[in-house]
Amino acid sequence: MAGDTETGVTVIKLVEELDAGPIAAQERFPIRPEDDAGAVYDRAVPLAVELLEAVLAEPEFTPQPDEGVTYAEKIGPEDRALDVSRPEEAVNRVRALSPHIGARAELEGRPVVVWKARVGDGRFVPVEVQPPGGRRMEYETWLRGLR
Questions:
Q1: Which of these three, 47, 72, 97, is where a domain ends?
Q2: φ, ψ for residue 138 (rounded to 5)?
Q3: At residue 70, does pLDDT exceed 80?
Q4: Which of 2, 22, 50, 139 is deepest in the core (most CB within 10 A)?
């Protein structure tokens, strides 16, 4: 949602504080411009398995640094709302919320969940949407069905 271009997987020892345990293994990987959260998860899982297998037998832990610590708040309804006047931010929000909960917008005066979008000519361009009670579909198909 923040537009990050990199993420990673970390194997830590659990402690009482959230995500504060010492690190046993860590590896970064790029987030491609077309990746949504589902694609990132799909790439993270095999990497997590690989890292865990590498350290499980004899883990060596390194304390986490205190600087650079961030906390991601739980996603609420307001986080799903798109401001299409801010196209880059809106596309990042769509990517972050797809394919699991989707982002919400009003397009052509109607509410939809937006599953895929891009920026074109400096504008927000919906690619895949879902009307209330309907199925996911290409935006152009949805437009043709409007009355």
A1: 72
A2: -60, 145
A3: no
A4: 139
Are the C-beta atoms of residues 82 and 102 closer than 8 Å to each other?
no
What pTM, to 2 d.p., does this model score? 0.86
| 25 vs 66: CA distance, rounded Å | 17
Structure tokens that stand for 8 in this block = 């990673």
Count: domains in the chain:
2
Residues 61 and 91 in one domain: no
Q: Do 89 and 126 have their domain in common?
A: yes
Q: Of 18, 45, 72, which residue sits at a domain end? A: 72
Of 72, 68, 93, which is closest to residue 82 (Cα–Cα)?
A: 93
CATH number of the domain that residue 93 is part of: 3.10.25.10
> For 16-38, how does the pLDDT look when each residue is reduced to its tens digit (9 = 90+)?
887 788 999 999 999 999 999 99
Kindly report, residue by residue over 92-134, the tens digit of the pLDDT. Answer: 999 999 999 999 999 999 999 999 999 999 999 999 999 999 9
